[in-house]
Design goal:
Structural class of chain B: mainly alpha
Chains: A mainly alpha, B mainly alpha, C mainly alpha, D mainly alpha
Largest sheet of chain A: none
Number of domains of chain A: 1
Number of strands of chain A: 0
Distance between the termini of chain B: 46 Å
Number of strands of chain B: 0
Helix content of chain B: 55-70%
Number of domains of chain B: 1
Helix content of chain A: over 70%
Oligomer: heterotetramer
Shape of chain A: globular
Largest interface: B-D, 81 and 84 residues
Strand content of chain B: under 5%
Order of helices and strands of chain A: HHHHHHH
Shape of chain B: globular
Order of helices and strands of chain B: HHHHHHHHHHH
Radius of gyration of chain A: 18 Å
Chain lengths: ~210, ~300, ~475, ~650
């Protein structure tokens, strides 16, 4: 089981770097969809035996994170008719470097944490920390609203990967609750983006500066 | 019973003397000034003639005055009379209690309050000027008077004028501070009664006056009362200065009365001499002289407590 | 009964969503609020209120927070029809259902024993309040909603991360990974130490963001500045209390695990920081609604500071939870009235509220005196208890700083409130709004509660606070 | 005890009724005033009984955060309660007719706040437990703030109200700190526990004394903390300024005395209070000289009188330290007597100022004049009050002055060396202050009442109705009683001094009664003499020959503008006696350029400069805070960065602790 998870996690880290590096919105959205599918595979691989519960969660994840949400984001992009990410606050290369540094740090930090016996060698915890940090980085450095949503998604995925280590802690009902919340959050963000685009005729949070002290 | 009767009689005599003699003091002062100037000068009893003349004249009150204007001279006379009753002669004062020195100083303040109010009541610029000057300069004179009283009180270990002015047996080390106090009180005497270094009593240029300009608009009996009150105030303050300068031992009352009158005569002559020798100070320097008087008596205190 | 507390509002929310008439829909609010309050009172009287096999249970802490949320919602629901009638141009088709859904989720947070379920409920309140904030449909409210949503969601994601860390701490210690509150408290001493501390930090930051503690408070001025009065009250009064409840649950676990000292130091630090930030940013504040937001940041800081001080401070903090909720209700609703009457939120155009709106102006001024801790009102009692606890438990420096911060906030806030209430009102452009019974009565009701809490704390409430304090402040 | 609770209930109830009936002004003010008078009467009975020794403390349990509440009356509280109640009742009656005659506005809330203010003052005086004291103290601040800002449409009233509120809050914070430290040390919140607690070590006692001085100093108007006093008194309606100056300030002194009873007596208290008193008196009177507003001058005179009372208290504590009960008795009698007489004098003066404002429409001395002829009763009483407060013989102000001077002298006699010299020099300084007070009040009387009217308003001044004159007469009668029979105040002062300074001092106070009776008889003698001489002179000048305008050295057309004005009268004094730092500073805007541009000349009192210093301090800090504002105005991403920073910092700290802990 361990053997299958680790390569998937390495691919996940690569996708993180892809998200950090890419400047085209369409690439970002498809990257996020890729992350969704990767998570679904991880769910199956981590669960020892393939129970119907694991299948349900995997299917739910794929359906939501790889199909529903990306389509919504693409529709929002079509409405606002923009494709390129404006120059981020700290530039693409520095954000990539920061991403790398973050991944390194999370590997080091994970080693200091006393892991449970079955996770000692595994990449699970460091990967979740790295993905969460990437999500945070995207949120804190990108100008476009859609990129920030993708960043928030990456953060959620990071947390989700951490959730995988605790198989029976999160019963199905709560798992579904978490997924539902995520979807509704993205859905509401989508509506807000639509209104922003109508109001400001562009959707970079830079314009959202009118609330002064 | 006999002793109370004689006591009462001596009190009545004391008050009568203090009420009758003051205009005479003015007469002596004017005669000394005349002698200095080589003039014959007005008769000694001129003061009494003026009072009688004014008592018989009619009085005129301006439209802008109120009852306070009439009250001015009345309060002046009343407070000076009561202060007179506090001054001891021959070891006894008609009215004395612990702390009457403070009452003595405050009575003059009350008189001054109403005189100033009466001056302001007329609504004339000159009276206002006199009132402002009087109020400021007397405020500076008060501390000098109180420091003097405190020195005496410290020596007599009590705040009653009677005890202060009749202890007589002052320790030799106290003479230095007593001399300072006498000098300070003499300056206060000159300041309070509009004598030369501070104010010229018989000038007619209102801009320079302090006291005369405050009674400018009084006429007839009111003016008489005002002048009489001023002279009584001069007499009482002079009596206090003499009480310090000539501490007569308790001996016979006659001897102390004679000493008091002689002292008063000397003070009157001294005032006359000072008025003839000095010219009126410029108004700006008056405060500094008064502060000097305060420092003199304050230094007296410091010397005493050495 | 426990389930009813959540399901009844949901049913009403569904009904409201379906009901077509714009005029009758707001009246659902008072009906549902009354029902909810009745159930709450019934729940308080009965001993153990549980449902779904222990998933929903009203424990001592919940017994204190639930009535607060319910009473506050009841007052807002009385205010809502009058207010919404004034805003015919805005459709309340989304507004009313979201309010009811908000109440349902609040009840769920208070009752859920499973920390994951609690997380879902808190995230749901965030999503429910987004459309509430967006009620005014103008550029400024979009920006406020976007900031609120994004920072809120990021905070909540960190909270989920912390919850997983907590579960992992149990896993690491070789126990079964269960996120049930009672299990975690029982197992606490054996949880692995570093995971527990890391989990508490993440949970503190996550739920601290929902409470609006500094430095995670940055969304508050924008959100409360643009939200209508009702939403401001519910966010500042009800939601903050529920987030504080969640925080106390995790503090309870960490305290049981023997790490209370670390948690209390963190709380004192963040508490004082929040009060300082409030004091600093309230100086020369031109917008009286943003000022109320900073006042909320300050009082959230006081809550956390009280817990941090410990001992009688915990009792003070929990009593302050009640006082703060009710006082915020008075302030936000009366500020809402003033905003309706003057049509502007900046102090430069709003003057003479006492003359123009005698009742709302007077209530706003009284609310200011209450919120800055003047004796005849509730908050004074709790703040005095906290100050006393600080001084007597040897933390004199913390006590002194606390009093100084209160003074700074008083001066900062006083300038703005007096500018708004006193003086001659400018010639009014909108004649429409006058103080009316239905927009003032609920505020007077809340004000009566504030004054009552200041003078005489009724015995049942006192028992509730004592039990809650005993529940939270466990002596390791 | 039941009377006290009944009185508080009546006050609160009548206030609420007045608020409810707010639409019918006459009815609601009547209800308010009646409630106030009945409430004060009800409370007066137990207060007088307590003065005669019938002390009581009653406790009852209250809900937890309060613990056990306790109120009670002992001689110290009763001594302060009696004058406060009398003044409150009089002010209530005066207030009713004063406000009804004023601008049409709803008076219900005002009556409610007035009654609540009186109730909170009573509560503070009877509090025997820190929570009750705090609730009463802050309620007193709030209600008096709401009363001061009654006419808040005027900008200077709002400014005065704001300064008052901030000062009140600073005082309250100091009081909370004081009480919390005491509770921490004594373990209970009850005053009895404070009295019997273990001796705090010296530094804690010093900190407690400093906090008490600051908390009560703000309320009593001690000099560095006095800033709100002149502003609030000038802005408030006159009966409120009377109540604040007469009662509120005294409660500040009561608070100080009550706090000092908790602490072990330190030898430095006496001299410290005397020095504070002198500073207050000198500063107060030097400012009062230069004021052109009648009520601001009276407010500064209150600061001076508080200074005198403090000197009296200082002498009392110094006497205790020197173990000389005679000196302590003189100090206590001076402070106690002057406190009672100041309540009546200052109350009367403020009510007269209200009557002048009502009659002549303005408080600016430069626009008044000749009111003695147009408002005879008000003028007579204002003159009566002025003579009293200037400390001139026949009236009660002099008795207070006399006792303080004798106290200083007795203290000087009790000990040789430097303190004796200081005390004796103090007597001279006090004489100067008294003289300046006389100057200040002769200026007020002379400019406002006498001479010719300086403006049309003063020209058309009319006497106030009986509703205003009645209460003023009551206060004047109080002053007259204290002047002619000072001994009536002896018993209350003896009981008050007995509790504070011990039985020996009380005995010495009783020993002073013959001195007071002589003073009383002398006052009566002075009054008699004045009447006799006045009648004689009046008889003599009964038929004035003619009534021309003032002679004025032959100037044919005298006008009111030729008279001395308030500032010119004081100019000589402020330029010679008052040090330049405290003297009023002219602010001149010279006309610039060829054509006559607007120019202005204003002379600002020293206090305005001090006020500007406080304001500059707050403004500087507000600017510093405002400069931090960019932290909030950054982009959304930065907010998220704050959250990230917080997480990383807290995680690092927790792991550090983890390693350190292991």
């Amino acid at each position: 089981m361990q053997a299958v998870a680790d390569p998937l996690l390495v691919v996940l880290l690569l996708v993180n770097f892809f998200l950090l590096g890419s400047s085209r919105l369409r690439a970002l959205v498809s990257g996020s969809a890729a992350q969704g599918t990767l998570l679904a595979l991880l769910v199956l691989s981590v669960h020892g035996e393939i129970t119907w519960q694991a299948i349900a969660i995997a299917l739910g994840t794929v359906a939501l994170k790889s199909v529903v949400i990306p389509s919504m984001l693409r529709r929002a992009m079509r409405d606002a008719a923009i494709h390129r990410e404006v120059e981020p606050l700290i530039g693409f290369v520095p954000s990539l470097l920061l991403g790398g540094l973050g991944t390194g740090l999370s590997l080091v930090f994970a080693r200091t944490l006393p892991l449970a016996p079955e996770h000692v060698g595994s990449l699970l915890v460091p990967a979740s920390l790295a993905t969460a940090f990437t999500g945070f980085l995207l949120l804190a450095t990108r100008r476009r609203a859609i990129t920030q949503v993708v960043g928030y998604l990456a953060l959620e995925n990071g947390v989700f990967v951490m959730g995988l280590t605790l198989v029976e802690a999160m019963p199905l009902l709560v798992e579904i609750g978490v997924l539902l919340d995520l979807v509704v959050a993205i859905f509401v963000m989508g509506i807000i983006i639509e209104h922003i685009s109508r109001e400001f005729s562009s959707i970079d949070p830079e314009r959202l500066e009118s609330l002064k002290e | 019973m006999g002793r109370q009767v004689t006591g009462a009689l001596s009190d009545v005599a004391h008050v009568a003397a203090f009420l009758l003699l003051p205009p005479l003091l003015l007469g002596v002062i004017n005669r000394t000034k005349a002698a200095f100037a080589g003039r014959v000068g007005p008769p000694y009893l001129q003061g009494y003639y003026d009072l009688v003349k004014l008592w018989r004249k009619g009085s005129v009150f301006s439209t802008s005055t109120s009852w306070v204007f009439k009250a001015g001279p009345v309060v002046g006379v009343a407070t000076a009379a009561l202060a007179a009753a506090l001054v001891p002669v021959a070891g006894h004062a008609p009215l004395s209690f612990e702390g009457d020195a403070i009452l003595f100083a405050s009575l003059f303040a009350l008189g001054r309050f109403f005189t100033i109010a009466a001056a302001l009541d007329t609504g004339s610029a000159f009276e206002g000027m006199g009132a402002a000057r009087e109020a400021t300069f007397s405020s500076l004179a008060e501390p000098a008077l109180f420091f003097g009283l405190v020195v005496l009180g410290r020596l007599a270990r009590s705040l009653s004028l009677e005890a202060m002015l009749t202890s007589g047996n002052w320790p030799p080390r106290a003479t230095a501070s007593l001399v300072l106090v006498i000098a300070a009180l003499f300056i206060v005497l000159l300041a309070e009664n509009s004598r030369i270094p501070f104010d010229d009593p018989n000038t007619h240029l209102e801009l320079t006056m302090i006291h005369e300009v405050m009674v400018l608009d009084h006429g007839g009996p009111a003016l008489g009362a005002a002048l009489y009150g001023a002279s009584l105030k001069l007499f009482v303050l002079a009596a206090v200065v003499v009480g310090i300068a000539l501490p007569v031992p308790h001996g016979s009352p006659w001897l102390s009365w004679v000493a008091l009158l002689a002292g008063l005569l000397a003070v009157a002559v001294a005032i006359g001499v000072v008025e003839s020798v000095m010219a009126r100070l410029r108004l700006v320097h008056v405060p500094s002289l008064l502060v000097a008087a305060c420092l003199l008596s304050a230094f007296g205190i410091v010397l005493l407590a050495r | 009964m426990a389930l009813a507390l959540v399901v009844v509002p949901l049913i009403f929310a569904a009904a409201a969503a379906v009901m077509p008439s714009q005029r009758w829909r707001p009246w659902l609010l008072p009906v549902c609020a009354a029902a909810h309050l009745a159930i709450t009172l019934a729940a308080l009287r009965s001993q153990d209120v549980a449902a779904l096999g222990g998933w929903l249970k009203l424990d001592d802490l919940g017994r204190l927070v639930l009535p607060i949320a319910s009473v506050l919602f009841f007052a807002c629901s009385l205010y809502a029809p009058g207010y919404l009638a004034l805003r015919p141009e805005r459709s309340n088709r989304v507004f009313v259902p979201c309010l009811l859904f908000f109440l349902a989720m609040n009840s769920l947070i208070v009752e859920s024993q499973h920390l994951g379920l609690m997380w879902v409920a808190v995230e749901a309140t965030t999503l429910a309040s987004a459309p509430l904030l967006y009620f005014n449909h103008n550029a400024r409210s979009i920006e406020a909603t976007w900031k609120y949503l994004l920072i809120g969601s990021v905070g909540i994601a960190l909270a989920l991360f912390g919850t997983f860390f907590l579960a992992y701490a149990a896993l690491r210690a070789g126990l079964g990974t269960s996120l049930f509150f009672s299990d975690l408290v029982r197992e606490a001493p054996r949880l692995s130490r570093p995971w527990l501390l890391a989990a508490f930090v993440l949970l503190f930051v996550g739920y601290g963001t929902k409470m609006g503690l500094a430095p995670m408070h940055t969304w508050k001025p924008a959100a409360y500045g643009e939200a209508p009065g009702i939403v401001g009250t519910l966010l500042a009064g009800a939601l903050t209390s529920c987030a504080f409840l969640a925080l106390l649950r995790f503090y309870r676990i960490v305290a049981a695990g023997g790490e209370a000292a670390f948690a209390r130091q963190l709380m004192i630090g963040i508490g004082l920081l929040s009060m300082a930030v409030a004091g600093v940013f309230m100086a020369r504040q031109r917008d009286y609604k943003r000022m109320l937001a900073y006042s909320s940041v300050e009082h959230v800081g006081i809550l956390v500071l009280g817990i941090g001080i410990g001992g009688a401070g915990v009792f003070g903090a929990l009593l302050h939870l009640v006082n703060n909720a009710v006082t915020k209700g008075v302030l936000f609703l009366s500020a809402g009235n003033i905003h309706r009457a003057y049509g502007s939120k900046s102090i430069d155009d709003v003057r003479g509220a006492l003359r123009r709106l005698p009742f709302s102006g007077a209530l706003f001024l009284a609310g200011f005196f209450a919120v800055t801790g003047s004796p005849p009102f509730g908050p004074f009692l709790s703040e005095f208890t906290i100050a006393r606890a600080a001084m007597t438990s040897g933390q004199a420096v913390v006590g002194a700083l606390f009093l100084v911060m209160l003074a700074i906030v008083f001066i900062g806030m006083g300038g703005a409130v007096l500018a708004v209430t006193q003086g001659e009102p400018p010639p009014s452009r909108r004649e429409g709004f006058r103080d009316r019974l239905d927009t003032v009565a609920p505020i007077v009701l809340l004000m009566a509660v504030v004054v009552l809490l200041g003078v005489y704390v009724p015995a049942p409430l006192n028992a509730l606070v004592l039990n809650a304090a005993a529940f939270v402040d466990v002596k390791p | 005890m039941t009377f006290l609770v009944a009185s508080l209930a009546v006050l609160a109830g009548s206030g609420l009724i007045a608020a409810v009936l707010s639409r019918w002004s006459r009815l609601s003010t009547a209800a308010g005033a009646a409630g106030a008078v009945v409430g004060c009467a009800l409370a007066l009975r137990p207060a007088l009984a307590a003065l005669l020794g019938e002390e009581f403390v009653s406790r009852w349990r209250w809900t937890p955060p309060y613990g056990e509440l306790a109120i009670g009356l002992d001689r110290l509280s009763a001594f302060f309660l009696v004058p406060v109640l009398v003044l409150a009742a009089v002010a209530a009656l005066y207030g009713r007719s004063y406000l009804l005659a004023g601008k049409r506005r709803p008076l219900g809330p005002h009556a409610l706040f007035f009654n609540l203010l009186v109730a909170s003052m009573v509560l503070v005086l009877v509090a025997r437990e820190s929570m009750v004291l705090l609730v009463g103290w802050e309620a007193m601040s709030l209600t008096s703030f709401l009363l001061v800002t009654f006419e808040h449409e005027r900008a200077e009233v709002r400014r005065a109200g704001w300064i008052y509120l901030v000062a009140g809050q600073m005082g309250a914070i100091a009081l909370i700190a004081f009480l919390v430290l005491l509770i921490g040390h004594a373990g209970a919140t009850d005053f009895a526990a404070f009295q019997h607690m273990a001796r705090p070590d010296p530094w804690l006692a010093a900190v407690l004394a400093a906090l008490a001085l600051m908390a009560c100093g703000v309320k009593a108007g001690l000099v560095p903390l006095h800033l709100w006093l002149p502003e609030a008194h000038a802005a408030a309606p006159s009966h409120i300024s009377a109540l604040m100056s007469g009662a509120l300030i005294k409660i500040g002194l009561y608070g100080l005395l009550r706090a000092l009873t908790f602490l072990p007596p330190a030898p430095w208290w006496g001299p410290a209070l005397i020095v504070l008193g002198f500073i207050g008196a000198a500063f107060g009177i030097s400012q009062a000289l230069a004021q052109r507003d009648l009520k601001r001058a009276l407010a500064y005179s209150s600061i001076e009188n508080v200074g005198l009372i403090l000197v009296g208290l200082g002498i009392a504590y110094w006497g205790i330290a020197l173990r000389a009960p005679a000196v302590a008795a003189l100090g206590a009698l001076a402070a106690g007597f002057h406190l009672w007489s100041h309540v009546f004098m200052k109350g009367l003066l403020f009510l007269c100022a209200g009557s002048v404002l009502h009659g002549a429409g303005t408080r600016n001395l430069e626009a008044l004049g000749g009111l003695a002829r147009r408002m005879p009763w008000t003028a007579a009483m204002l003159l009566f009050g002025a003579v009293a407060i200037a400390g001139l013989p026949p009236l009660n102000g002099f008795v207070g002055e006399w006792l303080v001077l004798r106290g200083l002298f007795a203290a000087a006699m009790a000990r040789g060396g430097a303190p004796a010299i200081a005390a004796m020099l103090g007597i001279g300084a006090l004489a100067l202050i008294a003289a300046l007070a006389a100057l200040c009040f002769v200026r007020l009387v002379g400019i406002a009442l006498l001479g010719n009217a300086r403006s049309e308003d003063a020209e058309r001044a009319h006497e106030s109705p009986a509703g205003l004159l009645g209460p003023m007469l009551v206060l004047a009668a109080g002053c007259a009683a204290l002047s002619l029979r000072p001994a009536i105040a002896l018993a209350p002062v003896a009981s008050f001094a007995g509790q504070l300074f011990g039985a020996q001092v009380a005995a010495q106070v009783h020993a002073l009664s013959p001195a007071l009776t002589t003073l009383g008889s002398i006052s009566t003698a002075v009054v008699a003499m004045l009447i006799v001489l006045g009648a004689a002179l009046a008889a003599r000048v009964s038929r004035p020959a003619a009534a021309p305008p003032t002679w004025d050295c032959g100037y044919a057309a005298p006008s009111a503008r030729m008279q001395y004005t308030a500032s010119s009268f004081a100019q000589l004094a402020t330029s010679t006696i008052v040090p330049p730092a405290l003297a009023p500073r002219p602010v001149v805007e010279k006309p610039r350029g060829l054509f006559p541009a607007p120019a202005a000349f204003r002379s600002e009192g020293a206090d305005l400069v001090a006020a500007r210093w406080y304001e500059a301090f707050f403004a500087r800090w507000a600017d510093r805070f405002a400069r931090l504002r960019w932290l909030q105005e950054v982009a959304l991403q930065a907010y998220l960065f704050y959250v990230l920073l917080m997480v990383v910092a807290a995680l690092a700290w927790s792991s550090l602790r983890g390693w350190a802990g292991k």
